[in-house]
Amino acid sequence: MPEGITEQSEVVQSLWNGSWIAALATGVVVWGLILWSVAFHRKRKNSNELPPQVRYNLPIEMLYTIVPLIMISVLFFFTARDQNYLTDMSQKPDVTVKVEAFQWSWRFTTEVNGKTAQVVGIPADNYEKGPQLVLPVNKRIQFNLQSPDVIHSFWVPAFKFKLDVIPGVDNRFQVNTLNAPGVYAGRCAELCGVDHSRMLFNVKLVTQAEFDQYIASQAGAQ
User: Fold this and answer.
1) Which residue, of 21, 77, 170, 202, has the greatest Cβ tally within 10 A?
2) Which InterPro entries match (predicted)?
């Protein structure tokens, strides 16, 4: 798994781990029952006698009704809890990024303290050659997603979270970045046309001093 670069990514990873453990445990039980049935309830060689046919077993029927309900309820609880955290918009962001997805690249407009910096990309064959979104570490970032044409999906694998960019729909989310400077790949995760695979970008996490310098230089060039 990619290293997470936000606090939210750690919550997602924890939810995934629990889901995988539950799925594996369920698989082990199902595989065990299948193998047990094959081994002990098959028709024997040189015998015309069929294995015992069992129907209307109330305890078993209650078991395979109640247990899945309990499992689904537990998964629903943790999923709903973490989803509420991931979509929480109650706090004021330190930096706001307007993300405009279009066929087939991105426009990022970063706003902080009344200053803005804008980057417009073109289709790229490598995420390092796509538009670069510069963000500070240890800050709360809000993303406002817009599209003028078709449905796209804003995905940074290191966020471990993606959200659709839908024309006419105001999709937003916030993340708290970690102290993890570096360059991270981003892409569109929704098939959106002929150059969908080239709709690449990257996110660069930098220190606050580097970010302030970047915003000042970009604002001065506009």
Assistant:
1) 202
2) CcO_II, CcO_II-like_C, Copper_CuA, Cupredoxin, Cyt_c_oxidase_su2, Cyt_c_oxidase_su2_TM_sf
pTM of the model: 0.83
Q: What is the DSSP letter of 42?
A: S
Instruction: Kindly give the pairing relationship between strand 161-165 and strand 152-156.
Output: antiparallel
Concatenated DSSP letters for the chain? -PPP-BHHHHHHHHHHHHHHHHHHHHHHHHHHHHHHHHHHSSPPTT--PPPPP----HHHHHHHHHHHHHHHHHHHHHHHHHHHHHT---SPPSEEEEEEEETTEEEEEEEETTEEEEEE----SSGGGS-EEEEETTSEEEEEEE-SSS-EEEEEGGGTEEEEE-TT--EEEEEEB-S--EEEEEEE-S--STTGGG-EEEEEEE-HHHHHHHHHHHHHH-
Amino acid at 57: N
58-89 pLDDT tens trace: 888 888 899 889 989 999 999 999 999 999 99
Question: 25 near 75, Cβ under 8 Å?
Answer: no
Give the span between the Cα atoms of 50 and 18, in whole angstroms.
42
Residue spans of the domains in the chain: they are 7-86, 95-221
Is-cis flag, bond preceding 104, omega within 30? yes
Q: What is the pLDDT of residue 221?
A: 57
